[in-house]
């Protein structure tokens, strides 16, 4: 699922479709669904949902509700549940339908399919088997957040959901912290303060934007530095669906003291070569030079 928002509780008058239910071409059709406002679905997506031979969804209740809102009828079709917990069991049934020449519409829980959801293996296996795979573009929480953030959009990196444990989370942050790009993160509303605390350990002044409840009634966009926003968030976290964006990293003058401090944090936990590669990448320096410094530090410690 791209994010865990859904159309439940959204008010919209049904718009009955009078178009004849002509099935789309045989193949797998990946349908982006609204991340909040039910009317954000595209007309093409409604056409395919109305006419596909087989329906599949990450959350069958959400898809059924969305179809009800827009006046679409199942007409005897059932919706196959396809999600993290049953993907391996259900994928053969969907591939079998494709092998029979049927059109299969797969809808995400919310947003664009295959972004932080289990659908990529379905698309991969369908393509490898020679079936047509089509994407019906539409809502995307990541791109919606990027659009309203005011942060540079010429280069961005989507890194999905952070690990929940502290050590794994810090390692995950270190993997992208030095990348010259706007970084887009999906986070639990309960852990967003913890994420900012982790960022503040090294970059309290990094430009940060928190998007909450995008396209919904209580949509909110918070802008500031990581430190400022961390102070403004209550200990229990926020409510609703959250996307966090971090601007480009602050330029750091990588003098000898900075490099030694960075290496010192890593040398006790990971091998010298890995520590040198990580620090060199962080500051855009020669791996050979940083490796030589790391060896000197190790010899000094011994």
UniProtKB/TrEMBL annotation:
Protein name stated in the entry: Ribosomal RNA small subunit methyltransferase I
Catalytic activity: cytidine(1402) in 16S rRNA + S-adenosyl-L-methionine = 2'-O-methylcytidine(1402) in 16S rRNA + S-adenosyl-L-homocysteine + H(+)
Main location per the UniProt record: cytoplasm
Entry keyword set: Cytoplasm, Methyltransferase, rRNA processing, S-adenosyl-L-methionine, Transferase
Function comment: Catalyzes the 2'-O-methylation of the ribose of cytidine 1402 (C1402) in 16S rRNA.
Coiled-coil stretches noted in the UniProt entry, renumbered to this chain: none
Keyword S-adenosyl-L-methionine found: yes
Entry's EC annotation: 2.1.1.198
Domain spans labelled Tetrapyrrole methylase: 28-229
Family note: Belongs to the methyltransferase superfamily. RsmI family.
Name of the gene this protein is made from: rsmI
GO molecular function: methyltransferase activity
Residue intervals of the RsmI HTH domain: 254-298
One GO BP: methylation
CDD domains associated with the record: RsmI
InterPro entries assigned to the protein according to its UniProt record, in alphabetical order: 4pyrrol_Mease, 4pyrrol_Methylase_sf, 4pyrrole_Mease_sub1, 4pyrrole_Mease_sub2, rRNA_ssu_MeTfrase_I, RsmI_HTH
């Amino acid at each position: 699922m791209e994010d865990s928002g859904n159309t439940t509780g959204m008010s919209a008058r049904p718009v009955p479709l009078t178009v004849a239910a002509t099935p789309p071409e045989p193949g797998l059709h990946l349908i982006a669904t609204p991340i909040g406002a039910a009317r954000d679905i595209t007309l093409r997506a409604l056409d395919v949902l109305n006419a596909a031979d087989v329906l599949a969804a990450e959350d069958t209740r959400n898809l059924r509700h969305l179809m009800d809102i827009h006046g679409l009828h199942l007409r005897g079709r059932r919706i196959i549940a396809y999600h993290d917990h049953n993907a391996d069991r259900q994928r053969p049934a969907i591939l079998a339908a494709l092998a029979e020449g049927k059109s299969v519409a797969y809808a995400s829980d919310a947003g664009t399919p295959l972004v932080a959801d289990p659908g990529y293996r379905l698309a991969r296996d369908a393509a490898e088997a020679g079936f047509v795979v089509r994407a019906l573009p539409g809502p995307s929480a990541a791109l919606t957040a990027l659009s309203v953030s005011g942060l540079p959009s010429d280069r961005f990196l989507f890194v999905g959901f952070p690990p929940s444990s502290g050590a794994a989370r810090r390692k995950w942050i270190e993997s992208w912290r030095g990348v010259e790009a706007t970084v887009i993160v999906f986070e639990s509303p309960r852990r967003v303060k913890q994420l900012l605390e982790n960022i503040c350990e090294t970059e309290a002044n990094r430009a940060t934007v928190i998007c909450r409840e995008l396209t919904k009634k209580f949509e909110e966009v918070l802008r500031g530095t990581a430190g400022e926003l961390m102070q403004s968030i209550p200990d229990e976290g926020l409510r609703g669906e959250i996307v966090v964006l971090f601007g480009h990293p602050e330029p750091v003058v990588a003098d000898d003291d900075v490099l030694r401090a960075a290496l010192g944090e890593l040398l006790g936990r990971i091998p010298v070569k890995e520590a040198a590669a990580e620090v060199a990448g962080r500051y855009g320096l020669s791996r050979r030079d940083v490796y030589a410094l790391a060896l000197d530090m190790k010899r000094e410690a011994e």
